[in-house]
Amino acid sequence: MKNGTFLFLGIFAALAISWAGLALGTNAQIAGVRPYYDQLEDKTFPEPMAGIAKRGRVVYQNLGCASCHTQAVHRAGSGSDIERKWGTRQSVARDYIYQERVQLGQSRLGPDLTNVGNRVKTANEIYQLLYHGTAIKPAYRFLFVEHPHDVEPSSKVVARIGDREVVPSAQAEELAAYLLSLKTAYDYPEAKPFVSKAKEGAHP
After folding, report:
1. Among 44, 64, 78, 82, which is most buried by a count of CB atoms within 10 Å?
2. Each residue of 105-132: pLDDT tens digit?
3. Does residue 68 have a pLDDT over 90?
4. What backbone torsions phi and psi does residue 44 show, to the nearest 5 degrees?
5. How far apart are CA 31 and CA 149, in angstroms?
6. 8 A C-beta contact, residue 110 and residue 68
7. Host H or E run for residue 37
8. 202: which DSSP letter?
């Protein structure tokens, strides 16, 4: 019985130390990351997200988009993310410092969205995708509303049903604003590929 108690305490201590090193240590490292100040541009990066985009992030989260999409570009040599044009560099901790709930994602049934704001140029492209869906992406038609086109013509029409126009709801507009805000806007020093001193001094 006495040995059993010591065994239990030893296992508990090992797990506790491992958890503290992984969870608390990682949190301490990330909590110390600050915005990067660029003297030439005289501003810091990343820039805070606009209000409508922040509301759109909540819509993204509530829809469970992270179940099928990621927001983390793997470094060159650790996958084909950059070759697929999902980003121009790897994602780093500084990219996420203004996000209360980071949407890293669970799987990639759809493409990574880290840099989708540079791949999709207009909100209408997003509306069309949300309304019509694709072979592997369901349509989110509940994010749209109908109204007679002769009452208040809209410039955001995604479809017409009889004499009625289908236009994005406030939630759809917020979600589109969030997705368009997802851009790799700055090349942080820590995002640059590591080159060992041996390779730097190597001759071709």
Report:
1. 82
2. 988 999 999 999 999 989 999 999 999 9
3. yes
4. -105, 155
5. 51
6. yes
7. strand 36-38
8. -
